[in-house]
Amino acid sequence: MSATRYRRFLKLCEEWPRDQTKGGHDLGTFLRQRVASAFREGENTQISDPEKCDQMYESLARINGNVYRQRFPRARDTSFTGVTVEESRLFLSESIQRVDEDKKGLWKTVMERLSKSPEDAPEKAPEK
């Protein structure tokens, strides 16, 4: 029976979209990692709570199938701030890039800046 569950989760992972703008910080990537860790032995993995596993699968399948988006359509594609989906996506991807740069550490950042040639550096405005 766990072989069937494993195959169902693999199929769900294949269908789940990845957002390349988030650089591996999206829900699709997280889901793939969790399935890989939960089913370490593949089809031979013994599941301690099959009901909970089935419930998780059904929940994720409903999210992936946009069940709730169709059941509860939005009047507008903006948030209460008036920001569109595309603007939110752009802001989020830029924020993730900044956080990743901050995680690099001081030494790596300094070495990258020192290794750049002067032509690559942005021009400064002349001082008055």
TrEMBL record:
Keywords: Mitochondrion, Mitochondrion nucleoid, Transit peptide. Pfam families: UQCC2_CBP6. It is found in: Mitochondrion matrix, Mitochondrion nucleoid. Its main location: mitochondrion. One of its GO terms (cellular component) is mitochondrial nucleoid. One of its GO terms (biological process) is mitochondrial respiratory chain complex III assembly. It comes from the Eukaryota. InterPro entries: UQCC2. Transmembrane segments: none annotated. This is Mitochondrial nucleoid factor 1.
